[in-house]
Design goal:
Blueprint: H1 3-8, H2 11-31, H3 38-59, H4 62-82, E1 96-97, E2 102-103, H5 105-125, H6 135-154, H7 158-174, H8 179-199, H9 203-213, H10 224-236, H11 247-250, H12 262-295, H13 299-323, H14 341-359
Antiparallel strand pairs: 1-2
Helix pairs in contact: 2-3, 2-12, 2-14, 3-14, 4-5, 4-6, 5-6, 5-7, 5-13, 5-14, 6-7, 7-13, 10-12, 12-13, 12-14, 13-14
Length: 368
């Protein structure tokens, strides 16, 4: 990477991601003392590995990644089919267990679905800006998205599938889709919600929605986790109860505290100040990523950065929302903070691609 390109890199994004990781590692250290910090030690290793992967993603021109994306997309479709035949873990067939590492193809596939989708949109736009509004073109894009989404729903992992949909929706909107399609989609979703709830969603997904609406209906069963999460956040106060001192965290009431509910650990033991700082850091990460999308040198870079922003946006809003009882529980991890090698490596590879795009841009936007 040339000196000029290094100056163009949006380093704030990397700094924010590293700070979030450090906060996550501190929370993990406190949350894993009964297991002699086993997950914390693993996460430290994944952090180092993720930084190496990020550097690679940053140095390889994103146009090369775009060119190979259809092939790797196809490989991940095969992996998403194969993972359906693996043993269930926590009620889902989402992981390949390879001994020292549980590989989750649904996480890594996000990268290449975004890249392939950006390539497809760009090819359509080369024939004319309005080509994106032709039904046949939209159906092709829906097919690219729909195959991995349906396979992930089959696992079942509704949270990850929703992340794909949000990212793709933002990319298609950024590509200039006609407003009538957006309005029609909103109406269709509104009409479909009761039908999906009553006839399509499995019982465990319905239960999560019911508990979200009224967690006190089953305080010792399905509503237990969200009640304990809200208690933990409320108990933290302004400055927190202190590391290794949180009641819900340390006495085993909060589960799973290293992944889905890690933000509750931050809120209970570090308090509102640190929890609020985490939210501010995420806002900064998302806004800077959108700025990279706005200033990218070409449409491809802009679409990719928009899709990556969509991934981060969904995960942050959904995870923090569910931990605070504002959204249904879906089990999506909190980027850079939740425990998980697949999630951490995927997120840092996305960061590497964003930095890659920012290095090629022109920072100044001239207004006529």
């Amino acid at each position: 990477m040339r000196k000029r390109e290094l100056k163009n890199v949006e380093w704030t994004i990397l700094i924010v991601a590293v700070i979030l990781c450090v906060i996550g590692l501190v929370a993990l250290f406190s949350a894993t003392q009964e297991t002699e910090h086993a997950d914390f030690n693993k996460q430290c290793i994944w952090f180092v590995v993720s930084l190496v992967i990020m550097v690679g993603a940053m140095l390889v021109d994103y146009e090369i990644l775009i060119k190979i994306s259809p092939v790797i997309y196809g490989m991940f479709i095969i992996l998403l089919i194969g993972v359906l035949f693996t043993p269930e873990i926590n009620g889902a067939t989402s992981w390949f267990d390879i001994g020292f590492f549980s590989f989750q193809p649904g996480e890594f596939a996000k990268i290449f679905v975004i890249l392939f989708l950006a390539l497809a949109i760009n090819k359509i736009q080369e024939r004319g800006k309005q080509e994106i509004n032709r039904p046949t073109r939209l159906l092709a894009l829906i097919a690219i998205l729909g195959v991995p989404v349906l396979l992930i729903i089959k696992q079942p992992d509704f949270g990850t599938a929703a992340a794909y949909i949000v990212a793709a929706a933002l990319m298609i909107i950024a590509a200039g889709i006609d407003k009538r399609y957006i309005i029609a989609t909103i109406i269709l979703v509104a009409v479909s919600i009761p039908l999906i709830y009553n006839f399509i969603l499995p019982d465990h997904a319905k239960q999560r929605i019911d508990i979200f609406l009224n967690p006190e209906a089953d305080p010792r069963g399905a509503g237990y986790n969200i009640i304990q999460s809200k208690l933990a956040i409320g108990a933290g106060g302004l400055t927190g109860m202190g590391l290794l001192k949180g009641n819900q965290t340390q006495l085993g009431y909060l589960y799973p505290k290293t992944t889905d509910f890690i933000f509750a650990v931050v809120g209970e033991e570090m308090g509102f100040i640190i929890a609020g700082t985490v939210i501010i850091l995420y806002v900064l990460l998302i806004t800077k990523s959108l700025y990279v999308a706005k200033t990218a040198k070409d449409e491809l870079g802009s679409l990719i950065a928009t899709g990556i922003t969509g991934i981060f946006l969904f995960h942050v809003v959904e995870n923090i929302g569910m931990v605070m009882g504002l959204l249904p529980i879906t089990g999506v991890p909190l980027p850079f903070i939740s425990y998980g090698g697949s999630s951490l490596m995927t997120n840092f590879m996305l960061i590497g691609i964003i930095l890659n795009i920012s290095s090629k841009r022109q920072k100044t936007i001239f207004v006529k």
